[in-house]
Write a structure and sequence with these properties.
The complex is a heterodimer of chains A (453) and B (322).
Chain A lengths: L6 E4 L9 E7 L6 E2 L4 E6 L4 E5 L4 E6 L6 E3 L3 E5 L16 H10 L20 H4 L9 H10 L17 H9 L50 H16 L2 E9 L1 H18 L5 H13 L8 E3 L2 E3 L6 E3 L1 E2 L6 E2 L2 E2 L7 H16 L13 E4 L19 E5 L3 E8 L5 E16 L5 H17 L6
Parallel strand pairs in A: 12-16, 16-17
Antiparallel strand pairs in A: 1-8, 2-4, 2-7, 3-6, 4-5, 6-8, 9-19, 10-11, 12-15, 13-14, 17-19, 18-19
Helix pairs in contact in A: 3-4, 7-8, 7-9
Chain B lengths: L1 E4 H15 L3 E5 L15 H5 L4 E3 L4 H13 L3 E5 L10 H15 L6 E6 L14 H5 L5 E3 L4 H13 L4 E6 L7 E4 L12 E4 L4 E5 L3 H10 L6 E5 L2 E3 L3 H11 L2 E8 L4 H12 L9 E5 L8 H7 L3 H13 L1
Parallel strand pairs in B: 2-3, 2-4, 4-5, 5-7, 6-7, 10-11, 10-13, 13-14
Antiparallel strand pairs in B: 1-8, 6-12, 9-11
Helix pairs in contact in B: 1-6, 3-4, 7-11, 8-9
Classes of the chains: A alpha+beta (453), B alpha/beta (322).
Chain lengths: 453, 322
């Protein structure tokens, strides 16, 4: 769509628990022309890094929030003027609602977007300052001091030109006890009854870490990304919440290896998808979870939640090795092997390309993590809250294995063996239940024929 | 201690060295009978005789060549260009021979070249320049630019002691205008050590020569701001450590000089701060200097040309408010 009136681009709602996002990169600058759905900027939340498409075609007339700044959902980030528009200032006050709706739609989370988000968020700074020496500019010395003390410069009141944070400002901020405390996102009213689709909501924790001192000799500080902070908070909180216990089982994957060898070429040629071992395991896991509703369940207050569906999360390592995201395959119990392989390939690719929509990372009921790619044979993963379990899959290796032939005679054979771990919340899942789950999962992987998948 | 003018301090230092060391002698135009165009060597010929206070023909080439030869032969000539501007006539002997002699053959070349420099009195384009950056660029030469009577005496002594050619830029506008307490005894002000003219926390002004006083006046007009003034005293070698320490302290630096802007020595200082103290800067390093033209004769235009107190105040405000 091409607009003759200015269209607001707002910070999209990235899942119900996410109330703010950080602008990581503007792909367009003021004066650039952009097509509708072309990527305008990249944002980072504690949940997901993603690209924000332009809601309209036209010229970028204003960029209101600079890179590096964190703002609330609904804040106007930029304006797209009509074609050839030089300045958006002349627009009548009426365009706010319609473009805001467009933007919300473009953010692909309309269903969950809070409808009462202010369409006209407070404009942080006059346009001319947003791109110049405004608050956005961080001088070298301020950047260094901020990094040494773990401070976000945007949290420091600035008295310099255009509100810039000066060296004196940040020193006064430190002297007055300001430290690495992030801006507090609004707290959900009652955290106790967590709704089914609520992803791990970051509870308000008193900042436990002391303000970091200057780095020691040979040390360097680097800032923590929003994702890293999100992971850190979630991991700590999960261990504080669930009673983690891990059970392991050895699985003879020889049959899976054989079936996969047969299907691989066919799947790649016909469907362009690789039937990975992970897809086989996910398929068998989704099937097994139907028999173990508590493993697929959740403790919510004093209620046990069970479901008639399986939403499988997959831990995906990001390309630079500096982050992890858990996109979710919804209704995994409805997928056959081909569907599962396609779904996993799709979410993994979109995770690495930062193309995940907010719904892609929420609503999981059980998670599979696959550290075996590096040859590890055991681990104790941390449960993704508020789920009850996480399956770990490890390296498949050929090992001598005692088998019993049809005549009842024992023999040592070379088999493709793999360990599986189930880490479960012992508050809900007992060891025997976990053992039976693993036994049944092993049974499927060892005995299923091609048609069972 | 006695109160001396800047000019008297130079004269005192020079006279004492001539009394101490017979190798020291003076040569230049009108330095003898007339006592020098500015009277720095008034009475010298009476005291030291015409062989140690040589009136030279109107030829800077001859003065510089003679000084170079005498220095190579073991003497300690103190040559005067009547105005620093005319050193261009002496370029070949100074830059080609004197500056490189020690590096080529190892002989010391202990020359002092006194260069009355600077404007502020409608001297026009031939009698007002500050050419220190041209010579700071020549390896083998040292450039000294004292601002106070005490430094003028201590640095002329240091220059005479130094085994290298030293260009002694003495600012004409300071000669009789600036007075100060000067120790009676002999002392040496080291070449390459800056002086903190006044301490401050908010902005550093790096300057030298007559601009030290312009900086001081500007700082006085901003009594609510804490301005540090570093007087380099010598631009080659220059006191990097002092400049960087001040830059790291205040994080805002204004480099001020009377010479023209492009290729002026302030560029070297600004570049060094950018290279070595980048992570300590809270604002771009600012330069205030003369525009890239010859020095105008008209008093109005000269005032517009030479950095004035108001210009520095404006620059300081921009940095303070940045």
């Amino acid at each position: 769509m091409s607009s003759t009136t200015a269209v607001d681009v707002v910070m999209p709602q990235m899942g119900v628990s996410v109330s703010e996002g950080t602008i990581t990169k503007w792909n367009k600058q003021v004066g650039d022309t952009i097509e509708a759905d072309e990527t305008l900027l990249e944002i980072s939340t504690d949940k997901v890094d993603t690209e924000v498409p332009s809601p309209a075609s036209g010229v970028v007339t204003e960029i209101l929030v600079p890179e590096g700044e964190t703002v609330e959902v609904g804040t106007v980030l930029a304006r797209i003027g009509g074609e050839g528009a030089a300045v958006a200032a002349a627009s009548p006050p009426e365009p706010a609602t319609q473009p805001a709706a467009d933007a919300a739609e473009a953010s692909a989370s309309e269903g969950q977007a809070a409808p009462d988000q202010p369409a006209e968020a407070p404009v942080p700074a006059p346009a001319q300052e947003a791109s110049g020496n405004g608050k956005s500019f961080v001088s070298p010395v301020v950047a260094r001091i901020a990094s040494e003390h773990g401070i976000d410069p945007s949290q420091v009141p600035g008295t310099g030109n255009g509100g810039r944070v000066t060296k004196r400002d940040i020193q006064a901020f430190i002297d007055s006890g300001g430290s690495a405390q992030p801006a507090a996102p609004p707290q959900p009213a009652a955290p106790a009854p967590t709704p089914a689709h609520t992803p791990p909501a970051a509870p308000q924790q008193a900042p436990t870490s002391q303000e970091p001192q200057a780095p020691g000799v040979g040390e360097q500080f680097e800032p923590m990304s929003a994702m890293r902070k999100g992971i850190a908070d979630h991991m700590r909180r999960s261990l504080d919440t669930s009673a983690h216990v891990t059970s392991a089982i050895e699985v003879d994957m020889s049959k899976v290896v054989q079936i996969r060898g047969k299907l691989k070429k066919e799947y790649e040629a016909a469907y362009g998808v690789n039937p990975t071992y992970l897809a086989f395991i996910a398929r068998a896991t989704a099937e097994t979870l139907r028999d173990y509703p508590w493993v697929n369940g959740e403790l919510r207050g004093d209620k046990i939640v069970t479901r008639n569906y399986v939403n499988l999360g997959f831990a995906v390592e990001l390309a630079d090795g500096k982050g992890l995201i858990v996109p979710v395959v919804k209704n995994a119990e409805t997928l056959n092997l081909l569907g599962m392989a396609k779904a996993i390939a799709d979410i993994a690719k979109r995770a690495r390309d930062k193309q995940l929509a907010p719904d892609d990372v929420t609503g999981g009921t059980f998670t599979i993590t696959n550290p075996g790619g590096y040859g590890t044979f055991h681990g104790t993963p941390v449960i993704s809250q508020p789920q009850a379990g996480i399956l770990g899959t490890y390296a498949i290796v050929k090992r001598p294995w005692v088998i019993t032939d049809e005549n009842g005679a024992d023999a040592i054979a070379i088999r493709s063996m793999m360990n599986l771990t189930l880490t479960y919340d012992h508050r809900l899942v007992d060891g025997a239940l976990a053992g039976r789950f693993l036994r049944d999962l092993r049974e499927r992987l060892q005995t299923w024929g091609e048609s069972d998948y | 201690m006695a109160e001396r003018t800047y000019l008297q301090a130079i004269s005192d230092g020079l006279r004492e060295e001539m009394r101490r060391d017979e190798r020291v002698f003076v040569l230049g135009e009108d330095v003898g009978v007339y006592g020098g165009a500015f009277k720095v060597t008034l009475g010298f010929q009476e005291e030291f005789g015409s062989w140690r206070v040589l009136d030279m023909p109107l030829s800077e080439t001859a003065i510089m060549g003679g000084a170079t030869g005498a220095a190579i032969m073991g003497m300690r000539p103190v040559a005067e260009m009547q105005f620093a501007d005319f050193v261009s006539c002496a370029w070949d002997h100074l830059v080609t021979i004197a500056a490189k002699q020690r590096w080529r053959v190892g002989t010391p070349v202990p020359i002092v070249l006194r260069l009355p420099s600077g404007g502020g009195f409608s001297g026009g384009p031939f009698h007002s320049q500050n050419p220190e950056s041209s010579f700071a660029h020549i390896p083998g030469l040292k450039c000294v630019c004292p601002a106070t009577p005490e430094d003028a005496k201590g640095l002329i002594v240091a220059a005479i002691e130094d085994p290298n050619p030293v260009l002694f830029f003495e600012h004409k506008h300071l000669y009789r205008r600036i007075k100060g307490e000067v120790p009676d005894e002999r002392y040496v002000t080291p070449i390459g050590k800056a002086r903190t003219h006044q301490e401050g926390e908010e902005v550093s002004i790096i300057t030298w020569g007559a601009m030290v006083y312009t900086a001081e006046e500007a700082a006085k007009q901003l009594p609510d701001s804490s301005i540090e003034i570093i007087d380099l005293r010598t631009v080659m070698p220059w006191d990097k450590e002092a400049v960087l320490a001040s830059a790291r302290k205040t994080s805002k630096v204004l480099v001020l000089h009377e010479d023209t802007r492009t290729g002026g020595f302030g560029g070297e200082i600004a570049a060094t701060i950018a290279e070595e103290a980048f992570e300590d800067l809270d604002a771009p390093v600012r330069r205030i200097a003369a525009p890239d033209t010859p020095v105008p004769f008209s008093p109005v235009l000269e005032k517009a040309f030479i950095p004035q107190v108001d210009d520095v105040v404006r620059g300081l405000k921009e940095l303070i408010e940045y």
